[in-house]
Amino acid sequence: MATTSQSVRRAALLASALAALGSLTACGGTEHRAQTAAQQVPAADTHTRCHTSGLRASVGRMDPGAGQRNFPVVLTNVSSRTCTLHGYPGAAFVDASGRQLGPDPKRTPEKPATVTLAPGRSAWAGLRYADPEVSGAHAATPAALLVTPPDERKPLKVRWTTGEVPVGGNASSVFLTAFEPGSGP
User: Residue 175 CB: number of other CB atoms within 10 A?
Assistant: First the structure.
């Protein structure tokens, strides 16, 4: 609930700042006045986004259901500072040589929230796909799952030990949810 009220405060602060800048522009305010007004607005969030170097990735226990395989993809803050995650992870199944297997996962349509991670705390995103044995999709067994935190370019590598994943053909889509606090459902 604290995350929600922080998000609301941030959104209200951003809206106020944009309205103030808009009124300065509408009144013929100069660029200097706009910069001065923006500098007077306090920072909306004292935490910076989480960086790959300060995170550890893991994949939780499979939660099967109705021909689906569901996994929590967990990022844990291993740094000494509080940071935030907003959005979806990047993810790719790779073979032992690092070659990607199948297309990039699709994002489920939802509105992501910002998750604040104190040192040692975790956030998770759901990874879901149809069981290839049930769907008839072309399958492969990856060596690893590469997980890239939001707004980062360097992935974290997690050894994949739970068998085949769909890589093509019928019902081969893999889906990801946005991050939520905790380590899984």
Answer: 15
Domain map of the chain by residue range? 2-46, 49-181
| Domain at 49-181, CATH class | mainly beta
Average pLDDT score over residue span 50-65:
95
Q: Has residue 12 got a pLDDT over 80?
A: no
Token pair for 175: 């889906």
Token duo for residue 162: 């739970």
The model's pTM is 0.74
